[in-house]
Write a structure and sequence with these properties.
With 486 residues, the chain is α/β, with parallel strands linked by helices. It has two domains: 277 residues, Aldehyde Dehydrogenase, Chain A, domain 1 (3-Layer(aba) Sandwich); 193 residues, 3-Layer(aba) Sandwich (Aldehyde Dehydrogenase, Chain A, domain 2). 39% of the residues lie in helices and 22% in strands. It has 15 helices and 23 strands. It has a seven-stranded mixed β-sheet, with helices on both faces. Helix 2 crosses helix 6. The longest helix has 25 residues. It is globular and about 70 Å long. It starts with a strand and ends with a strand. Bound molecules: nicotinamide-adenine-dinucleotide.
Length: 486
């Protein structure tokens, strides 16, 4: 059985205690490899290597040279494109087209984007007046924050992990990554690219394992880690924040969402349907920015619901490399249990099941995968768990509304504040609504259209801080003020 190892100080190693855990392929349930399970020893070794590199060879690399290395890493990913695509496809079970056209290219793009940014960023300088009239020059310099703990989830593993590693390295930090136990492969493969690109040993480290009482918790508790950047569930963020409090370490959190789509009757229905098919069902609904609550202006409601149900029939589950496949499985049987519990609850509480609601029939070779039907409901009360809690599956609840004021109240009636989409041809209304919905990112007549220079993050329980562009550089570096009396 092949084995996925840790990447520490530039070399691949197994756990000292020899412990491993199995990885099951989401689309057919097959045990495809074992993953080394890291403990305190591996975390100590990785953090130690990261600390040594920070003060050693990496400290001597200039900003220009770091930017060149970022580009070399991006080129290395592109050179090994097919390896990254198949590694990510096996880990997540998602259609190969999504890996090829979105998730893997974005990994390379993350490194290129921060290579550009880190060279262009300036710091502030003030000419200060002093009582004796001589004045002083106050200027700021930017220094790396130190050893960064990167904890990443399974839903878009390579994209989300590199979204943190790229700015961290561009700013001169070193990292220890703890990828999700479900998706260990691409972070591991990136170690080879780092070595080929000439990144010094210890700058990029990967330790595998679980969260609580395992590598994840040990990393966040480690007092030689200077800051923690985390993407995952809000509940996990709470635990990590508690660990980070010891030693007063900084955190950047990209957490859960319960995002709304607000559709006015004047919207271009075809564009709406195309957008909703992506925002609800892409990656089998396992996207933090995905839409699980849909609000439709009443005159359009019936037409919209039946048109969306019609389009859903076009989603084709199947082998990720199948030419016709457009819909993948959930990440694991465990996650399917969770999503199905919401499906059952909706049914038991009288939801109108417009489409799906269960487990699909698939050919024998795929029947042990964690498949689930894309599902649309209407008719549940606004305080129902299906409408209030993040399900993270291919499903949405659709509800009619009559006024702007009413839908603003409905959309904001959630503990989360990650993203929303607004669909209308009325530009004034779009601006008005966008400012009134309490989220970090609003898309008008689109979804997931990302410019990596823009601030990304959530309000309320969807996160702390912003990443993207200069905002990433703010988190991954420390500004120091120097005052020189003239
Ligand atoms: P998760 O919180 O279960 O796990 C994420 C990572 O945290 C994994 O690597 C896990 O091993 C680790 N972990 C778990 N408990 C830990 C602990 N106590 N200490 C340290 N590490 C711990 O999340 P998931 O199920 O992998 O991902 C899905 C979640 O991620 C959803 O809630 C989704 O909305 C969220 N997400 C948010 C964004 C965003 O940008 N806001 C993006 C993608 C996913």
């Amino acid at each position: 059985m092949p084995e996925i190892r840790h990447f520490i100080d530039g070399t691949y190693r197994a756990s000292t205690n020899g412990r491993t855990f199995p990885k099951y392929r989401p689309y057919d349930g097959r045990h495809i490899f074992d993953v080394c399970e890291g403990g305190r020893e591996e975390i100590d070794a990785a953090v130690g290597a990261a600390r040594a590199a920070l003060h050693g060879p990496w400290a001597k690399v200039s900003v220009d040279d770091r930017a060149d290395l970022m580009r070399a890493i991006a080129a290395g990913i592109t050179k090994r494109f097919d390896d990254f695509v198949s590694a990510e496809m096996n880990d997540t079970g998602q259609p190969i087209s999504a890996m090829r056209h979105a998730f893997v290219p974005r990994g390379a793009a993350n490194f290129n984007a921060f290579a550009d940014l880190v060279k262009a960023v300036s710091t502030e300088c003030f000419h200060t007046e002093t009582p004796d009239g001589r004045g002083a020059l106050n200027y700021a310099i930017r220094k790396p924050k130190g050893v960064i703990g990167v904890i990443s989830p399974w839903n878009a593993p390579f994209l989300l992990m590199t979204w943190k590693v790229a700015p961290a390295l561009a700013c001169g930090n070193t990292v220890v990554v703890k990828p999700s136990e479900e998706t260990p492969s691409t972070a591991t493969l990136l170690g080879e690219v780092m070595n080929e690109a000439g990144v010094p040993n210890g700058v990029y480290n990967v330790v595998h394992g679980f969260g609580p009482d395992s590598a994840g918790a040990y990393l966040t508790e480690h007092q030689d880690v200077d800051a923690i950047t985390f993407t995952g569930e809000t509940r996990t963020g709470t635990a990590i924040m508690q660990a980070a409090a010891r030693g007063v370490r900084d955190v950047s959190f990209e957490l859960g969402g319960k995002n709304s789509a607000i559709i006015f009757a004047d919207a271009d229905l075809d564009a709406v349907l195309e957008g909703l098919m992506r925002s609800v069902f892409l990656n089998t609904g396992q996207v933090c920015l995905g839409t699980e609550r849909v609000f439709v202006e009443r005159p359009l409601f019936d037409r919209f619901v039946s048109a969306l149900a019609e389009r859903v029939k076009g989603l084709k589950p199947g082998h990720p490399e199948g030419a016709a496949t457009s819909f993948g499985p959930l990440i694991s049987s465990e996650h399917r249990k969770k999503v199905l519990s919401y499906y059952r609850r909706a049914e038991a509480d009288g939801a109108v099941i417009v489409s799906g609601g269960g487990v699909p029939e698939l050919p024998a070779e795929l029947s042990s995968g964690s498949w689930i039907e894309p599902t649309i409901w209407t008719g549940l009360p606004d305080d129902h768990p299906v409408i209030q809690e993040e399900i993270f599956g291919p499903c949405c609840h659709v509800r009619p509304f009559d006024t702007e004021k009413e839908v603003i109240g409905l959309a904001n009636d959630t503990l989360y504040g990650l993203s929303s989409t607004i669909w209308t041809q009325n530009l004034s209304r779009a601006h008005r609504m966008a400012a009134a919905i309490d989220v970090g990112v609003t898309w008008v007549n689109s979804w997931f259209l990302r410019d990596l220079r823009t601030p990304f993050g959530g309000t309320k329980q969807s996160g702390i801080g912003r990443e993207g562009g200069i905002h990433s550089l703010e988190f991954y570096s420390e500004l120091r003020n120097i005052c020189v009396k003239l």
